[in-house]
């Protein structure tokens, strides 16, 4: 009885299409369930190699449309319908597979790049992510297109050669732009400065406002915006004052030659006590350094333990005023350039010549 039913279905041609539909449904269900299993498997808290989350994100990006098309193509391949070309179906399957693999790698790259730059500043992260994503995804999808064309039977050798020549021509035409682009990437990766830093480049100074793909923008002390090409910026010597942990201050003062020896010996001690009495200031040295034409030179060095310019100037002013007060209390006079002129009577000079004659 059962054999007769199967024979009747085979005569009307229903068995193979039914099996094809069933196979397509099974393939679709397996792919969907496989996607869910892989996402759960790699979404574990213990990420030993730092890539599990990226792999999970890649599998999560599996396209439902591509799964449907793959299941449909599989069903058509099994059904072997006379009006459907097997070669066409095979090409469709290969295209679907390549596209899905490209989508997985695309998502993996995007997740990994964002994770790598998660600790960067907002402006630096946006710039770096946009540049690297553009380069990585451009290379990925170019390779995917070449693989698809090759599977479709198209000779890609001449195409690759033509693209190579065209790429060289384009690179030569936009070499300055590419140079600035890679310079921007170097700034973001190496971080000689960041947004908010106060920097000096040659005779230009200002706060960094934005690091772009081609240019970097500074806000000068007088208020105007300064735009610098990234390539020119990296060729210059950059002074970054934001990363200065302390400022070294060296100054000298002079006292008159008539200063008593005991007070001259005490001057470095007085200055040391004045400097050590200030917060965020580290005393280094104070010495009677040299004999000058107009007085005795005392040289002092100390450090302000902050990069804040206002704090540095406040401490410097406090120390200078305290030194002036101490010298007035002790009766020590500051020396300043002086010149003494000795005048001689011309008549005395003339009498001297007469006596010689």
What does this protein look like?
This protein is α+β, with helices and mostly antiparallel strands. Helices cover 60% and strands 15% of the residues. It has 12 helices and 8 strands. It has helices at residues 2-12, 15-42, 52-60, 64-79, 86-116, 122-151, 156-173, 175-190, 230-235, 261-276, 309-330, 346-356; strands at residues 198-201, 204-211, 215-219, 225-229, 238-240, 247-255, 281-291, 296-304. A 5-stranded antiparallel beta sheet has the order 4-3-2-1-5. Helix 10 packs antiparallel against helix 11. The N and C termini lie far apart (165 Å).
Q: What topology emerges from the helices and strands here?
A:
Layout: H1 2-12, H2 15-42, H3 52-60, H4 64-79, H5 86-116, H6 122-151, H7 156-173, H8 175-190, E1 198-201, E2 204-211, E3 215-219, E4 225-229, H9 230-235, E5 238-240, E6 247-255, H10 261-276, E7 281-291, E8 296-304, H11 309-330, H12 346-356
Antiparallel strand pairs: 1-2, 1-5, 2-3, 3-4, 6-8, 7-8
Helix pairs in contact: 2-3, 2-4, 3-5, 4-5, 5-6, 6-8, 10-11
Radius of gyration: 41 Å
Strand fraction band?
15-25%
Profile the largest sheet. Answer: 5 strands, antiparallel
The topology string of helices and strands comes to HHHHHHHHEEEEHEEHEEHH
Total of helices: 12
Question: In what order do the strands lie side by side in the largest sheet?
Answer: 4-3-2-1-5
What is the arithmetic mean of pLDDT? 80
Structural class: alpha+beta
End-to-end Cα distance, whole Å, is 165 Å
Gross morphology is: elongated
Low-confidence stretches: none
Kindly state the percentage of residues in helix. Answer: 55-70%
Q: What is the total tally of β strands?
A: 8
């Amino acid at each position: 009885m059962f054999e007769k039913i199967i024979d009747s279905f085979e005569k009307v041609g229903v068995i193979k299409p039914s099996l094809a539909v069933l196979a397509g449904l099974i393939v679709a269900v397996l792919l969907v369930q496989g996607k869910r299993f892989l996402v759960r498997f790699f979404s574990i808290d213990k990420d030993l190699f730092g890539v599990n989350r990226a792999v999970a994100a890649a599998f999560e990006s599996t396209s439902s449309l591509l799964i449907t098309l793959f299941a449909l193509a599989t069903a058509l391949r099994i059904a072997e319908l006379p009006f459907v070309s097997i070669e066409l179906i095979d090409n469709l399957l290969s295209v679907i597979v390549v596209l899905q693999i490209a989508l997985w790698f695309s998502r993996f790259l995007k997740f990994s790049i964002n994770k790598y730059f998660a600790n960067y500043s907002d402006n630096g992260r946006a710039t770096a992510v946009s540049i690297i994503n553009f380069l990585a995804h451009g290379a990925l999808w170019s390779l995917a297109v070449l693989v698809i064309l090759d599977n479709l039977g198209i000779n890609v050798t001449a195409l690759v050669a033509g693209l190579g020549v065209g790429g060289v021509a384009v690179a030569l035409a936009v070499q300055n732009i590419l140079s600035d682009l890679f310079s921007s990437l170097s700034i973001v990766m190496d971080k000689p400065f960041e947004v908010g830093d106060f920097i000096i480049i040659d005779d230009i100074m200002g706060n960094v406002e934005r690091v772009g793909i081609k240019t970097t923008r500074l806000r000068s002390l007088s208020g105007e915006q300064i735009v610098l090409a990234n390539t020119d910026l990296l060729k210059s010597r950059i002074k970054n004052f934001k990363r200065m942990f302390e400022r070294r201050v060296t100054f000298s003062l002079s006292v008159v030659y008539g200063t008593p020896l005991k007070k001259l010996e005490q001057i470095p001690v007085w200055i040391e006590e004045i400097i050590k009495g200030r917060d965020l200031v580290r005393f280094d040295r104070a010495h009677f350094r040299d004999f000058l034409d107009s007085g005795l030179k005392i040289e002092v060095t100390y450090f302000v333990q902050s990069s804040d310019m206002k704090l540095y100037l406040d401490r410097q002013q406090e120390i200078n005023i305290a030194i002036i007060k101490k010298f007035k209390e002790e009766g020590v006079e500051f020396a300043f350039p002086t010149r003494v002129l000795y005048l001689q009577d011309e008549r005395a000079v003339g009498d001297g010549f007469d006596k010689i004659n």
